[in-house]
Amino acid sequence: MNINIIKRKESELTHYLREKGLRLTQQRKQIIAYFFSKYKHYSVEELYEEIKPQIAGIGLATVYRTMQLLVEAGLALQRRFKDNITRYEPVHKNHHDHMICLGCGEIIEFGNKKIEAMQEEVAKRHKFVPVSHTLQLYGYCAKCMAKQRRGKREK
Amino acid sequence: MNINIIKRKESELTHYLREKGLRLTQQRKQIIAYFFSKYKHYSVEELYEEIKPQIAGIGLATVYRTMQLLVEAGLALQRRFKDNITRYEPVHKNHHDHMICLGCGEIIEFGNKKIEAMQEEVAKRHKFVPVSHTLQLYGYCAKCMAKQRRGKREK
DNA sequence: AATGATATTGATATTCATTTTCAATAAAAT
DNA sequence: ATTTTATTGAAAATGAATATCAATATCATT
Ligand SMILES: [Mn+2]
Ligand SMILES: [Mn+2]
Ligand SMILES: [Zn+2]
Ligand SMILES: [Zn+2]
């Protein structure tokens, strides 16, 4: 099933490249094949480390450049949380925001129409015209909370 | 009136320094005097540039260190928006979030209990225990919108 | 007021993520 | 096949922030 997604993404990228006079290289093909086969919030460094064994001789700069390209082409979104490392996620559904676990680093996506609506309202109250926003919750995921409780009990 | 705030902040810092075995230096005194006399979201670079003429020979590293110290002492808050530059604001009131103007860079503070409550709710739904959060709206402030409208009319 | 212990300073080097440079290479139009 | 030029990988450069270190200032103790 993943193979279809990858084919589609490659074709979407091809269209973008063509209209911009750019080229579809082996590196670009392989990076998107890998990136869209997993669903993660990858940093370039992480992606590079995982991809390196698969793509002989690939350079870090190429991964940086390709991820930027995917954003320009509308196939990926750039995110940046507290750790100050740029991450990329596949464009897959509607706008959403993130909860980030301080214990294990897990990133949970959530969407909430009410919160979005209230943001619009607050903006209007200040005569501010919103273009985009970021909302991040930092804390501990269910798994990490359970682990913490176990740890305390054992003392 | 500002002089009183500054005196109070200096005394708060003094208490913190004493209990930590640290020292109240001329540089620290002068930086807090300046920082608390303006109400802004200063980057270290900005603060350094403004302070340099007032404090002969002050070093950039000292400003970096002092701002960190103010955070540790609970007198300042660290913020970081899209431009990825660390900024500091005086602790002055309750928790709040920010709207940032993409035109002029103005930073508008706002607090909204309903949004905060909904965040708690969403977190609970995911069994996520929130510790902190950041919410930023990016867009155009009233002033910049007016300017833009004027520009279009003149064409 | 002088002393001594040590926290602090300013200059500079270093770090880390990311970007830029550039000569060699590969894509794709002819 | 040839030609044009976008792309690549390696290495250098960037920019914000931190670490290092010898000189200096603070401040508790004489
Ligand atoms: Mn949102
Ligand atoms: Mn908030
Ligand atoms: Zn976790
Ligand atoms: Zn503005």
Instruction: Give the topology string of chain A: H per helix, E per strand.
Output: HHEHHEEEEHEH
As an assembly, this protein is homodimer
Look at the helices and sheets of chain A and give the structural class: alpha+beta
Largest interface: A-B, 33 and 33 residues
Bound molecules: manganese (II) ion, zinc ion
- Share in helix of chain A: 40-55%
Any idea what the shape of chain A is?
A: globular
Number of DSSP helices of chain A?
Answer: 6
Order of strands across the main sheet of chain A = 1-3-2
The number of strands of chain A is: 6
Mean pLDDT of chain A: 96
Taking the sheet with the most strands of chain A, its summary is: 3 strands, antiparallel
Distance between the termini of chain A: 47 Å
Radius of gyration of chain A: 19 Å
Strand content of chain A: 15-25%
Give a quick precis of the structure.
Chain A has helices at 2-20, 26-35, 44-51, 60-72, 113-125, 142-153, and strands spanning 42-43, 76-80, 86-90, 97-101, 107-110, 129-140. Chain A is α+β, with helices and mostly antiparallel strands.
Structural notes for this entry:
2 copies of one chain form a homodimer. Chain A has 155 residues and is α+β, with helices and mostly antiparallel strands. Chain A contains 6 helices and 6 strands. Chain A has helices at residues 2-20, 26-35, 44-51, 60-72, 113-125, 142-153, and strands spanning 42-43, 76-80, 86-90, 97-101, 107-110, 129-140. In chain A, the strands form 2 sheets. A 3-stranded antiparallel β-sheet of chain A has the order 1-3-2. A 3-stranded mixed β-sheet of chain A has the order 5-4-6. In chain A, a hairpin with a 5-residue loop joins strand 4 (97-101) and strand 5. The longest helix of chain A is centred in the first third of the chain and has 19 residues, at 2-20. Chain A binds chain B through residues 80, 82, 84, 99, 101-102, 108, 110, 112, 114-115, 118-119, 122-123, 126-142, 145, and chain B through 80, 82, 84, 99, 101-102, 108, 110, 112, 114-115, 118-119, 122-123, 126-142, 145. Bound molecules: manganese (II) ion (2 copies) and zinc ion (2 copies). Chain A binds a DNA duplex (30 and 30 nucleotides) through helix 2 and helix 4.
